[in-house]
Amino acid sequence: MKKRIAALVLCLALVFALAACGEAAPATESAAPTESAAPVAPADVPDLEVSANLDFGTGSSTGTYYGFGGAFGTYISNNTGVTITAVSTAGSQANIEMVDAGEYDLGFVQSDVMSYAYGGTNLFTEAVTGFTTLAALYMEQVQIVTLDPSIETVADLEGKTVSIGARGSGVYFNAIDVLGAYGLTESDIDPIFQNFDDSVESLQDGRIDAAFIVAGAPTTSITQLATTQDVYLVSLDQEHIDALIETSPYYSAYTISADTYGTANDCTTVAISAVLIGRADLDPDVAYTIAYTLFQNADKISHAKAAELSLEFGASVTDVPSSASSSVWAARASCSTSAKRCRSRLLRSASKSSIRFRTGSSSAVQGSVASPASAVSHVWKVSGWWLPSSSALAAGQEADKLISRKEP
């Protein structure tokens, strides 16, 4: 088994290292089949003998987490020995807590909530470390939804009745962050604490003026609302976006195009990452099978978010380390032959591409690498490894240990 894993990863490293010349291109959705269309390509899955039944904590039944999680969970279940059951949940905090407790095997989380958990802040009274990151998947936009065209800026929310997410939820803290960037606090609005579904219902019934919804656009609940109402998204201006990112660097600027919900104009806002996590003791071969199958078959998964998957973005999680078991597995898979040959191979692969990469807390560099740790981190980007960059770095450090023992 180890030899097969090593051979698979080495082949991937060789192919991608020779071909890579820049950032991986995101996958695109498959065209609708026609009479003359070619048969659907078979699934590209790793040659691993795995068998597992996993419960996957997602989110609201009308949210992107549940829809996308169900779509790729079904694809993986149908094409590998890993069966994934998507479960509707209260969202990021609940998913982290349930994965940490061993009740769920996988979970969808917002990157900011994940950081709160690992640091024991905001939603969490103490650090939660019983989970591993598998990959960042796509961006989740902070969407301020209203049916009132007079609400044009965040400042216009003052004195309005606004749903800011369930009390203490990730959405709640996103709302507080955005309001704070405009000099507003919770006391400057009439806050209502509702989830996505209840917020949309309240908007439709005229009980609230606006709602914060943080999810990948298009979000099902907003799309459904837009079928019966004229929906407006409130934009953030660049000055306040910059101020928000400066104080909360886990945000990124993002533009939601007008055709997403049929609005009159594009919406400028901020976004965080949707991250796939798993139990800290998740079988590394199972984790590899999930991530490999997901990224390699993005064009075959029946959900719009699959088109946003990319290896470069998948490696963007750096503030929460992966589990020790995943790191050791990565090192074993890449360096299961001679340690000296491992170092030579990684350094040669790294020198063949100009892709930028990070190692630990050091700044991004190009071209050469100083150690197997940075080489492994680089080859992760080039070769299609699915473990987060923190795991790649740990894998390289494991390689350093092997080399220091002067193994043949």
Q: What is the alpha-carbon Rg in Å?
A: 22 Å
Estimated share of beta-strand residues: 15-25%
What is the element string, with H for helices and E for strands?
HEHEHEHEEHEHEHEHEEHHHHHH
SSE class = alpha/beta
Largest sheet: 10 strands, mixed
* Alpha-carbon distance between the two ends: 22 Å
Helices and strands, with pairings:
Layout: H1 2-19, E1 52-57, H2 64-79, E2 82-87, H3 92-101, E3 106-110, H4 111-119, E4 131-146, E5 161-163, H5 170-181, E6 190-192, H6 196-205, E7 210-215, H7 220-226, E8 232-233, H8 238-247, E9 252-256, E10 267-279, H9 284-296, H10 311-314, H11 324-335, H12 339-351, H13 372-383, H14 389-404
Parallel strand pairs: 1-2, 1-3, 5-6, 5-7
Antiparallel strand pairs: 3-10, 4-7, 4-8, 4-10, 9-10
Helix pairs in contact: 1-11, 1-13, 5-8, 11-14, 12-13, 12-14, 13-14
What does it look like?
The chain is of the alpha/beta class and 408 residues long. 40% of the residues lie in helices and 16% in strands. Strands 1, 2, 3, 4, 5, 6, 7, 8, 9 and 10 form a 10-stranded mixed sheet that branches. α5 links the parallel β5 and β6. The N terminus and C terminus are likely disordered.
Summarize the structure.
This protein has 408 residues and is α/β, with parallel strands linked by helices.
